[in-house]
Structures are given as C-alpha cells and as structure tokens.
Design goal:
Length: 75
C-alpha cells in the first residue's frame, strides 16, 4: 500500500487561447519540484496541477509569468 499522497489544485490563468498556450503553461509548471501532472484548458482558463505536496503559489505564479500568462489565483 502506497503512503504517497497527491494534492490537486486548480488555478485560474488568463491569456491562454490555444493548444500552444496550454503547452507553454504546462511546460513551465511541470518544471516545479513535486509536480507530477499538469492539465491546462484554454477554453476555461483553468490549469489543474497534481503534486506531491501543496505548491507555493508564488512559484506557480512565476512559472506562469515565465510562460507569458497571468495567474489569477486558485479557481
């Protein structure tokens, strides 16, 4: 039995309009320590992040900024 827990957080990101946008945001957030999966949806502006522990929102914000988009906060 695994004791590994995962945390899923949904963030609201503005500026994503297409698959390329989703990929750019996903790639940057994926580089953060502890992130196991990222699913960005341009249609809703939501980015679902699964990680091994709660993420520092400022680190997520920096990753989204690096991709050229704006993190509004948790959805």
């Amino acid at each position: 039995m695994s004791t590994q827990t995962s945390v899923t957080t949904v963030y609201k990101v503005t500026g994503m309009t297409c698959g390329h946008c989703e990929g750019a945001v996903s790639a940057e957030i994926s580089e953060l320590d502890g992130v196991s999966s990222v699913k960005a949806a341009a249609a809703t502006g939501e980015v679902t992040v699964t990680s091994t522990a709660p993420l520092d929102e400022e680190k997520v914000r920096a990753a989204v900024d690096e991709a050229g988009y704006e993190l509004v906060g948790e959805a």
